[in-house]
Amino acid sequence: RHINGNYGFNSTFDDCGNEIKRIFVDDQEQPTTIVSGVYGKRMIYDKNTFLLTSISNLDANGNLMADIDGYVTIKTLYDNDGKPTVNYYLDENGESWKAPDGTYGSKDVIDQQNMLVTSYFVDNVGNLISQNGGTYKVIMKYNASGQLEEVYSLDNADNYIEDNDHQVFQIYEYDEQSR
Q1: For residue 131, which of 29, 66, 111, 135 is within the disulfide window of CB 3.0 to 4.6 Å?
Q2: 4-55 per-position pLDDT tens digit
Q3: H or E segment to which residue 44 belongs
Q4: Spatial distance between the Cα atoms of 23 and 8, rounded to a whole number of angstroms
Q5: Sorting pLDDT into bands at 50, 70 and 90, what band is 120?
Q6: Between β-strands 137-142 and 148-154, what pairing exists: parallel, antiparallel or unpaired?
Q7: Which residues touch 52 (CB under 8 Å, ≥6 apart)?
Q8: Residues 36, 88, 98, 56: is their CA dihedral positive or negative?
Q9: How far, in whole angstroms, is CA 156 from its chain's centroid?
């Protein structure tokens, strides 16, 4: 059983080999929910670039549904190099959706090794904003093997933000087999 609660998934692919639908299944191959409360995902790609432009949550009948966080779709915008830059949360009508933390999505900074190094929060038109708790950006650092090593949050004056456990840094360590 997967950590998300399912035993596997069944996928549908388009003529180009892109996965366009994924339904999560239990040990009897029946649709089941994962921890986010959804039964599946629908993916849409740009016809020219084949970049993934949106991922939507599906119910057991293949209809759009909100997950436990409340959004239905994440729409992704890309820069001219094909790197994802902004992710917007959308409701079931394709309209901007405001998360409980006051944000409408995130703006990501990708480095030369295609690693996400900074994630900012945005309003419904892409302006940078802080979450209700004060977090303005999240910084990710990686080790020489490209594994996530450290994560921390900053406010808009670059002060550290503590999490609910009063910790500032999330530190990840790996054994000699990179586990």
Answers
A1: 135
A2: 777 889 999 999 999 999 999 999 999 999 999 999 999 999 999 999 999 9
A3: strand 40-45
A4: 9
A5: very high
A6: antiparallel
A7: 18, 43, 44, 45, 76
A8: negative
A9: 22
Are the C-beta atoms of residues 87 and 118 closer than 8 Å to each other? no
In the chain, the amino acid numbered 23 is I
Residue type, 11: S
Q: Report the C-alpha gap between 78 and 48 in whole angstroms.
A: 13
- The identity of residue 65, as a single letter, is M
Cα 58 to its chain centre, rounded Å, is 16
Residue type at position 89: Y
The rounded distance, in Å, linking the Cα atoms of 98 and 168 is 26
